[in-house]
Amino acid sequence: MIQEFQQKQTRTHPITLDGVMKQSDTKFHRYFSFHWNTITSRNTELTSNYKIKKLSDELIKKMKIHNWKSFQKISLNFRRCEQIDDRGLVNIAKKIGNYLPDLEELHFDFSYCSLITDNGLNLFGCHLAKNLKKLLKFEINLFGCVNLTDKGSNLFASHFGKNLSKLKSLNIKIGCTKFSDNVLAKIGKIISTRLQTFDSLAVDLSFCNQITSEGLAKLGSAITQRSIPLQNLFVNFNT
CB within 8 A of 205, min separation 6: which ones? Predict the structure, then answer.
């Protein structure tokens, strides 16, 4: 019974800040800081939800990420955090990259963070990929990030292909109207030529109305050229 209780206590540490959306900035800041400081290094998995419009780049700077060194898996949900821009994105990547080099699994939800641009996504990928050499699984949701284009996505993918040789699983939810077939061609090329240990790919292309069957064909062709076939492949194409 004691062992079972300890496992439940140390396995995951969820945080939800939805309930303070209507608080003043001062109260919100105190609440945010209090919860950050309650995270300890006893856990191996962190799942945090920040579905709040007031979560800004300034508050992201106060994240005590250096306390997370024992975590093997981290999931951060910033869905509809409308004040987060490129600075916040880069701050998150720098802190995780610098303090958590042994991280194995990482999940991000930046859906509807409309201030994020190609430059921010490029630097985000750069800081993560050059430091997280042991990363095995990565997931990112960029649905509704209206300022992102092929340029940012291709640069982001290049960083991962160049530096994350141990990566086995990639789950990308794009959902941006400015993405085209070039994105699929880039992903396919990286998977077929660089990530030889890679075995699982999921791509959600919902509402990417510039992507055509030709782009899907290029992705499929690149995947079939791998010397080691993928074990899992999922592509959602719904415009």
Answer: 174, 175, 179, 184, 211, 235, 236, 237, 238
